[in-house]
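Researcher: I'd like a candidate sequence for this fold, 378 residues long. If you have to choose between options at a position, lean toward the conservative one.
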């Protein structure tokens, strides 16, 4: 399950978004029991929660989830922001191999001055031992990217940082990746350049206005276009969204001067890398949801308040080979893979306004929970 549960703090800071709501449904004392009831009802093995308020997490959310059999990991936002992301899993189903928090704030990179975070867990399914030994690990990532519709440059860089961490965590000895589930509130709409980059594994962003990256707003008048490259080299992440091995020219200890040919080579490589406006990643990711109702073509929505009703929340997963047939080169990256068996239906904007939008008496966030059932091939 992926669920942005709306932190009380953010609700109160943005009260203009909730003018349509009856006051009592906005109190945390009313909302939390409802949210807990939903979590209990759906009974997912893994929860990816966003906008988890730190004080509520400590006093209510974590203790309640632990009593339901979940092990909880939490990453607070930086800069004294009072909320963060949590990944909780049933310890009857998984054991924890590693916890990898990601901070998108970097004091040494002026572009990265926002306090968003991600969290990447490596889990091992608790299974009877298979003939081939231990069951494969699964990588679960959760994030809440920057909201600001006009800062697509920051959003893409935050995404690249998350993808680099996932590549690091999901990387297996044979060079392939274990199955990946990447959840969260990406503050980007289906079909936008950021969304397409996740699904297609490539994006040529040359000439793209920074306000067009997420597709949240239509107008991009007077906006600057993305610089090439988007982020500076000292971030240490390549255009392929992996951590760069620092290239140190090999020099004999006795010799203080690089030979001229070595120097030329290094410079040529750097220039070529700098000028490329192509981003890539090596995962073959599918979206659990199709974003439109097949019969009507009406959009699904994952969030609905006074200002907008759109899809910004996603569950992406590495599909098994059969599901991405005809994409050459993807086979390498997959062993096992996940098969999508079922998903919880989303609603249309019209559906939601018939119950007075979100939050309401029964649904206590301004987002809907996303839920998917997978089979992991061992």
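Model: Candidate sequence:
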């Amino acid at each position: 399950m992926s669920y942005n549960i709306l932190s009380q703090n953010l609700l109160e800071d943005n009260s203009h978004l909730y003018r349509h709501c009856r006051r009592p449904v906005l109190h945390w004392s009313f909302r939390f029991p409802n949210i807990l009831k939903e979590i209990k009802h759906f009974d997912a093995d893994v929860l990816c929660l966003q906008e988890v308020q730190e004080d509520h997490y400590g006093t209510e959310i974590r203790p309640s989830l632990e009593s339901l059999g979940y092990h909880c990991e939490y990453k607070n936002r930086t800069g004294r922001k009072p909320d963060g992301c949590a990944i909780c899993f049933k310890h009857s189903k998984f054991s924890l191999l590693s916890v990898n928090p990601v901070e998108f704030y970097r004091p040494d990179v002026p572009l990265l001055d926002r306090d968003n975070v991600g969290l990447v867990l490596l889990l091992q399914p608790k299974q009877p031992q298979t003939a081939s030994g231990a069951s494969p690990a699964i990588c679960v990532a959760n994030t809440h990217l920057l909201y600001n519709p006009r800062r697509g440059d920051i959003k893409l860089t935050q995404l690249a940082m998350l993808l680099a961490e996932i590549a690091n965590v999901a990387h297996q000895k044979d060079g392939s990746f274990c199955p990946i589930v990447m959840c969260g509130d990406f503050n980007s709409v289906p079909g936008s350049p950021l969304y397409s980059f996740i699904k297609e594994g490539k994006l040529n962003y040359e000439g793209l206005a920074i306000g067009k990256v997420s597709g949240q707003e239509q107008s991009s008048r007077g906006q600057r276009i993305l610089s090439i490259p988007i982020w500076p080299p000292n971030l240490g992440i390549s255009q392929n969204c992996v951590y760069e091995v620092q290239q140190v020219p090999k020099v004999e200890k006795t010799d203080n001067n690089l030979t001229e040919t070595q120097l030329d080579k290094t410079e040529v490589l750097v220039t070529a890398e700098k000028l490329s406006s192509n981003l890539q990643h090596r995962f073959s990711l599918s979206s659990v949801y199709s974003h439109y109702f097949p019969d009507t073509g009406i959009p699904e929505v994952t969030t609905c308040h006074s200002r907008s009703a759109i899809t910004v929340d996603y569950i992406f997963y590495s599909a098994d080979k059969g599901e991405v047939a005809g994409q050459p080169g993807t086979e390498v990256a997959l062993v096992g893979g996940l098969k999508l068996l079922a998903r919880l239906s989303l609603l249309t904007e019209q559906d939601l306004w018939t119950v007075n939008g979100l939050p309401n008496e029964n649904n206590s966030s301004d987002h809907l929970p996303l839920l998917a059932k997978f089979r992991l091939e061992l």
